[in-house]
Amino acid sequence: MPPPQPETAPARRRTTALAAVSPETRALLALGYPLWPLAALALLDPKRSPAVRREATQALAVNFGLFGMWVALEAICRIPLLGFSAWPLLAAIIPIWFVATTIFAIKAWNGDDVRVPLISDWLDEREERRASAA
């Protein structure tokens, strides 16, 4: 007979500073992922909440980063012979953008901590430098 297994508590959702933001601001931040002008509008928040600034900056960085990748791949596609290998990647940018921004928007709407792989690390380092300088 196997030994009894200890009961595990159900996983709780990690609360973040974004969960304390008003639902209207969270909706603006969530829509800022697929629609980048709304993220720019969220940066004009009169309360200047660090959580709101962070999410809006991440949304803008995701959109501009993927746009930059699209421009670079488009330029590579113009090069003879080398361009043939870039066409499939260029065609994959739009679905990747759609899926990524949808997932990030849902997480932001629910008040979860949105961690964009490279951008969140860069923002963390920037905040640490600002905190150590103060």
Going by helix content, strand content and strand pairing, the class is mainly alpha
| Uncertain stretches | 9-14
Give the CA-based shape.
Answer: extended
- Helix fraction bin: 55-70%
| Count of helix runs | 5
- Beta content comes to under 5%
The radius of gyration computed from the alpha-carbon positions, rounded to a whole number of angstroms, is 19 Å
Q: How widely separated are the two ends?
A: 61 Å
Mind describing the biggest β-sheet?
none
Overall tally of domains: 1
Number of strands: 0
Instruction: State mean pLDDT (0 to 100 scale).
Output: 84
Helix-strand pattern: HHHHH
What does this structure look like?
The protein has 134 residues and is an all-alpha fold. The chain has one domain (17-133). Helix content is 67%, strand content 0%. It is built from five helices and no strands. It has helices at residues 23-32, 36-42, 50-77, 83-110, 117-133. The longest helix has 28 residues, at 50-77. The protein is extended, with a radius of gyration of 19 Å. The relative contact order is 0.15.
Question: Secondary structure elements and their pairing?
Answer:
Elements: H1 23-32, H2 36-42, H3 50-77, H4 83-110, H5 117-133
Helix pairs in contact: 1-2, 1-3, 1-4, 2-3, 3-4
Short description:
The chain is an all-alpha fold and 134 residues long. The chain has helices spanning 23-32, 36-42, 50-77, 83-110, 117-133.
Q: What key attributes describe this structure?
A:
mainly alpha; single chain; 0% strand; extended; 134 residues
